[in-house]
Amino acid sequence: MSLRNGYPEYPKKFVDKISDDLVFHSLRVEKADHVFIDYDPGASQVAYEVAKKVLALGASLDFRLRDECMNGLLKEGLAIQYLKRPDAAFLARIQCSDCYLSLRYADGNVLPTIEGTRERIWISHQKAVREEIVDEERTRRCGVSLPTPYQAQVDGMSFEEYLDVYFRACSLPWNEIEIAQEKLIQKLDKGHELKIEADLSNANPRKRTSLLLSIKEMTFANSTITKNYPGSEVFSAPVLTSVEGTYFSPGRFFYQGKLIRDIYLKFEKGRVVESDASEGRKRLLKILDFDSGSRLVGEIGIGTNRELIEDVSDTLLFEKKGSSFHIALGSPYHFSYYNGKKVEVDNGGESAIHWDLTQMLNREGGSRMLLDGELIQENGLFLDPSLEALNPRV
């Protein structure tokens, strides 16, 4: 494996494909645009190729090279009054940009752990920055979590195997996916109640999922590769106090780099009233008790990437897997437009937390997704032939 600036070098076909998609499809860069690239050191190979294509179009360019270790020192050591202070200069640079691209590269560096008041201030600050970036009416943006040897190791693969998984997930007919997702959205937007059941044959009721959510007057957003790369999903939010039932998902979940395994949640009137985990139980409780909105559900999403069939734990990949759905604890999205289309995805919740939890629907235990009592997906497969493009390849 050849190295580039101390990091494994990606194959040329990989970099060419991703940079083309990001510039010409995700961000849709034009000559008059001002583009901002925010990237980790390990993502420099992709960042440089994107920059070359942006400049070749005649667009202008700004960038920031992130240093997560320095960020860790700031989180741990800055006086509270400075920790509260927003990075006005950085936000100003974002606000004058037409396009914002974030390239993340997880290298497994162990960063300082902060707790209590300091943690609350930092997470709230990060949320404020994130909301500036996701202003749909001002800035076209896309977030990418690139494959890394660290992430491959976490998921029990060689780096070459992980690259193959990632590249297949990027190589879908996005126009076809977008059309099929729009058909699914047309069904969902007419519906009032969504019921999702998983692991139906499990004798232990705490290891079954049975969630009932009202989606009345909410509408779904059609997400392929315009906001996250690779896609794809449709997402909205449930009516805030409507979520009832139980959620259980075996597997690995991460929040702020900390592992939580095999999560169980019980909902009443939209709020988590009981929780458990086989590992990281105390951390799960800290998340749930972070603020008044962190026990509520801010998002319901359905993953549709038919090539993502391996067991991956990276959140941006996991939530896009075909035959999956996810809920996000905490804040909903507060925008009113998505890709130029008016949407209703804000259920009125408010939290500094937005944490996606994904559940697979194609396990041997059996699953069902019902819309107003009509079975629309069974064992992870959509039943409508017009949605075949959203079903996993195996």
In short:
With 394 residues, the chain is an alpha+beta fold.
Blueprint of the fold:
Layout (H helix, E strand, L loop, with lengths): L2 E2 L2 E2 L3 H15 L7 E6 L4 H13 L3 E6 L2 H10 L2 H4 L4 H8 L3 E6 L11 H18 L6 E6 L3 H6 L4 H12 L3 H17 L2 E6 L10 E6 L6 E3 L4 E2 L3 E4 L7 E12 L2 E11 L2 E9 L1 H8 L8 E7 L11 H4 L5 E7 L6 E2 L2 E2 L11 E7 L6 E5 L2 E5 L2 E2 L12
Parallel strand pairs: 3-4, 3-5, 5-6, 6-10
Antiparallel strand pairs: 1-2, 7-8, 7-20, 8-12, 9-11, 11-15, 12-13, 13-14, 15-16, 16-19, 17-18, 20-21, 21-22
Helix pairs in contact: 1-2
Structure description:
A hairpin with a 2-residue loop joins strand 20 (367-371) and strand 21 (374-378). The chain has eleven helices and 22 strands. It has helices at 12-26, 44-56, 68-77, 80-83, 88-95, 116-133, 149-154, 159-170, 174-190, 281-288, 315-318; strands at residues 3-4, 7-8, 34-39, 60-65, 99-104, 140-145, 193-198, 209-214, 221-223, 228-229, 233-236, 244-255, 258-268, 271-279, 297-303, 324-330, 337-338, 341-342, 354-360, 367-371, 374-378, 381-382. The chain has two domains: 3-146, Thermophilic metalloprotease (M29) (Thermophilic metalloprotease-like); 174-390, no CATH class.
* Largest beta sheet: strand ordering: 14-13-12-8-7-20-21-22
* Individual helix count: 11
Query: Which descriptor suits the 3D outline?
Result: globular
Helix/strand structural class: alpha+beta
Radius of gyration: 20 Å
Question: Tally of extended strands?
Answer: 22
Keywords:
single chain, 394 residues, alpha+beta, Thermophilic metalloprotease-like, eight-stranded antiparallel β-sheet, five-stranded parallel β-sheet, 11 helices
